[in-house]
Amino acid sequence: MNIVLIFLITIFSISLFFYGKSKTKTISIKDNIKLNALPKFYGYYLVLWCSIPALVFLLVWSLFEPVIIKSIIIETAANQGAIFSDKNEANLIYEKIKAIHLGTYFGDIDSILRESALAYAKFINLFTNSKVVLIFGIIIASVIYSLKKIKNNNKARDDVEVILKGLLFVSSLIAILTTLGIIFSLLFESIKFFSVINVFDYLFGTNWSPQRAFVRDASSITAAEFEELKDAFGFIPLIAGTSFIAFIAMLVAVPIGLFSGIYMAEYASIKVRRISKPIIEILAGIPTVVYGFFAALTVGPFFRQVGENLGLTVSSESALAAGLIMGIMIIPYVSSLSDDVINSVPQSLRDGSYAVGATKSETIKQVVIPAALPGIIGSVLLAVSRAIGETMIVVMAAGLAANLTINPLESTTTITTQIVMILVGDQEFDSPKTQSAFALGLTLFIATLILNYIAQRAVKKYREKYD
Amino acid sequence: MTKEERLKKRHRAEKRFRFYGLTSIFVALLFVVILVQNIFSKGSSAFKKTVITTEVFFDQELLEIQNGASQEEIMEADFYDIMIENLIKAYPAKDRDEEDELLKLFSGDSEIEIKKAFLNDNNLIGKTITLDLTASDDIDQLHKGNYPRDLPEERRRISDFQLVIYDYFVENKKISKNFNNYFFNNGDSRDPELAGIGGALVGSFYSILICLLLAFPVAVLASIYLEEFAPKNKITDFIEININNLAAVPSIVYGLLALQILLATIQLPRSTPLVAGITLALMTLPRIIIPCRASLKAVPPSIREGALAVGASKFQSVFHHVVPLALPGTLSGTIIGLAQALGETAPLILIGMVAFVVDIPSSPVDPSSSLPVQVYLWSESAERGFVEKTSATIMMLLSFLIVMNFIAVYLRQKFEKRWN
Fold first, then answer.
1. How does DSSP assign B134-165, residue by residue?
2. CA angle, B32 then A297 then A385, to 5°
3. Following DSSP, what letter does each residue of A367-381 receive, concatenated?
4. Which residue does chain B place closest to A446, by CA atoms?
5. Contact A452 B394 (CB under 8 A)
6. In chain B, which among 337-356 make CB contacts under 8 A with chain A?
7. Which residues of B touch A158 (CB under 8 A)?
8. In chain A, fewer beta carbons within 10 Å around the N or the C end?
């Protein structure tokens, strides 16, 4: 149905384009008046007025129709006497009703279901009909309005440009909408979570075991269950594990990345730079799931084997393996950014240093790096925020159990791993366990936001200094 | 310390410092080599599959159809008995147990493979043909040399008797390696020898297509607005801050967004390329806007002023002159953004693309997998056969990424104007 409507709108718009073009031409010749724009702009003007309001309406309608129909149908089913205790069962009944309507349901059909299916068919019909009527109403109204404008010889090009400019502005608003969407979706579930679990129990609890939260309905928890829940969601082990793995990653990435950046900026010939820079940047382009696979199947077992030979017990999901591989992934972020930053240190600073007899490395260590320090710190912070938000490597190579440990050979877990573990597969709606994933997401979002903000500020300040 | 000694020391420090720099670059390059080499050595064998050459006799008594049967009749007919009768003749087995072990050397799809042969030529009743039947995963891995046969029997998945049959096959040249068409055509399967990336390829294709259709126009329009038309005010600043922050938001957060908004609120179908495409588009949008704006910014103001000077409107100067000049940079930025989206896994896991999907999706609203998610799924499987499949999938994924990046670099170098 929607495709037919879009097709009709397109046909309408195209014919209106030609109509507008020729109509204005004939008017100008007949009445001998000077048009305020080229005839084709009158065509464009009609096209925009015919298509945009209708398409926007269609989009909004299609977004809300299924949700509204669903709530109506579930209500009618409940009025018919259908019994469901929670959202999941209601969803199941709704899916059944839909399947009966489409003729793809092969189970037993009782009277309630049959009645609801009939009601469903009725509502679908009603909604479709009113959609078509409304769309045609909108098209007719906007076309009449725009034709009137054209008859009055409006400045069509200016008007078209105003509309297009509005379109450009709306496109750039999508970024704000996405941010709002993220904040809304994270906050919505997090607030539900924090209405059951105290914020301080979450932030300072030292025990993370969400699998204990079997409570399906958050509103009817007994006191004993509440005590149990209270210390199932302690954030400390997760932030400890995340920071620990990120720390190991930085131990790998910062020295290698920084030294490569310095070498590329200060020593390497153009030829070496042209070859090695893209190759190092390959490391940033490889999907993280590939690193995860490499860490889980090659590096983890290799470390365990080495550990066995040395008489150490190394978990095959050790923090060391995950951190090392994550560090490799991050090398190009550090090296590219610090390369840029070092390159933008003014040559006069170096020349001054050489003039008093410093060697190249002394100049780098004592003049260039101190001058570039804010930028370098910024790039390292950006790398840290990458590391804590990285998901696949830790999901595949780090552990699942939340251990509070500082032994790199043991397994730890991270925020992102837990989000994936909680949300993968079937979720129970409205259980604190599912909601906790959103609380974790919110924490992660805020943490990366702060890190990025500081990093961007640092880099910007630094740039301003030498521009 | 004399002057000379101090100078020598300083020069040694200089050399050392240089050496550190060179070593780090070398180490980084080494990692690239190790990673690629590791994946290739594990994965290249997956492009071949082991087949057992078997004689198949189509016995009229075991089939309820006649020569010249129609397509539907053949599709409905039962080829199970034909399969059993012929497979147990592949090796002179003594009793039922031995026959069972023999049958386990063939893949679970032998019946379908025999049926397909009959579909190609429906006059085979009473005749004998030789078919290359796919071997089971264990034999496949053994034949490719990925499976150690010197383990004690109880720790092996292949029994001693099966090894005897295998050696008999090898001796009689009945076992060979063919091109692995299943790997490219099939959907996911629990049996490694039948599992393929067909479904994942199609799923990835749809997701990236939707991502492109949504993200590219919006990103280009948004960057044109911000670069050319936006007034310097609080709203513009706010939009810019938002874009920069969104580019740095961890991808898993977009997964949570999709779960809450697209799946729970708007109720789009789970596990589908449609949802994946929208999610990836939201994620890729800021990553495309940033290079798009850079390439618009690189067009010198003289171009705009020239157009304005001969009477073009602001719009005409932008759309007739600036945008075409910025297009190569815009396109290459978009392709790089799409390449990142193609390798993205975490948000897709959250929207349910980890579901086990056997069928190849025929539209963007069918449940499906995608290449990186398939890598994740198979890497969690215990069977040895999935290791080479995973590596081969990674090889496919990496080759797509390499091609996309090459196109991006080519576009930029070939068509982008240098303004000096």
1. EBPHHHHHHHTT-S-TTS-GGG-SS-HHHHHH
2. 60
3. IIHHHHHHHHHHHHH
4. B249
5. no
6. 339-340, 342-346, 349-350, 354
7. 313
8. C
| Residue A167 included in any domain | no
Q: Within chain B, which residues score under 70 in pLDDT?
A: 420
Q: d(Cα B285, Cα B273) in Å, to the nearest integer?
A: 17
Nearest Cβ partner of B285 from A67, A175, A255? A175
How far lies B203's CA from each of B274, B276, B339, B357, B366, in Å?
9, 9, 15, 11, 9
Name the nearest CA neighbour of A301 among A285, A317, A280. Answer: A317
Of the partner residues A66, A264, A362, the one whose CB lies closest to the CB of residue B267: A66
Using one digit for the tens of pLDDT, what is the confidence trace for A368-385?
999 998 889 999 999 999
Q: Give pLDDT, residue B144.
A: 87
Element (H, E) at B175: strand B175-179
Contact B346 A255 (CB under 8 A): no
Residue B71 in domain: yes
Does residue A262 sit at the B interface (CB-CB below 8 Å)? yes
Write the ipTM. 0.91
CA distance B394 to chain A (A): 7
Q: Does A361 contact chain B (CB < 8 Å)? A: yes
Question: A-chain residues within 8 Å CB-CB of B372?
Answer: 287, 289
pLDDT(A217) > 70: no
Interstrand relation of B48-57 and B175-179 (parallel, antiparallel or unpaired): antiparallel
* pLDDT score of B197: 92
* A357 at interface of B, judged by CB pairs closer than 8 A: no
pLDDT digits 0-9 by tens, A169-206: 999 999 899 999 999 999 998 998 888 888 888 888 88
Q: Report how many domains make up chain B.
A: 2
Q: What's the distance, CA B367 to chain centroid?
A: 16
Nearest to B24 among A176, A263, A279 (CB): A263
Q: Phi-psi bin for A153: left (phi > 0), alpha (psi -120 to 50), beta?
A: left
Helix axes A432-466, A369-389, angle to 10 degrees: 160
- Helix, strand, coil distribution of chain A in percent, nearest 5: 80, 0, 20
Q: Is the pLDDT of residue A243 over 60?
A: yes
Give me the domain span that covers residue A388.
236-466
CATH number of the domain bearing residue A314: 1.10.3720.10
From A45, A41, A56, select the one nearest A13 (Cα to Cα). Answer: A45
Tokens of B216: 């590219």
pLDDT cut 70: percent of chain A above it: 94
In a domain, A88, yes or no: yes
**Confidence class for position A222, pLDDT limits 50, 70, 90:** low
CA–CA gap between residue A331 and residue A281 (Å, rounded): 9
Residue A366 lies in a domain: yes
Based on the fold, state whether residues B211 and B105 are members of the same structural domain.
no
Contacts of B253 in chain A (CB under 8 A): 182, 186, 389, 441, 444-445
Dump pLDDT digits (tens) for B49-78: 999 988 888 888 787 777 777 888 888 888
**Closest to B227 (Cα-Cα) out of B289, B293, B317, B322:** B293
Q: Both A149 and A39 in a single domain?
A: yes
Whole-model pTM: value is 0.89
Q: Tell if the CB–CB gap between B14 and A362 is shorter than 8 Å.
A: yes
Residue B357 per-residue DSSP state: -
Q: Are residues B268 and B342 in the same domain?
A: yes
Residue pair B333/B288 in contact by the 8 Å Cβ criterion: yes
- Asked if residue B202 and residue B173 are part of one domain, the reply reads no
pLDDT (tens digit per residue) in A117-168: 888 888 888 888 999 999 999 999 998 998 888 887 778 888 888 999 999 9
Range of the domain at B97: 52-178
Instruction: Verify that B323 and B213 share a domain, yes or no.
Output: yes
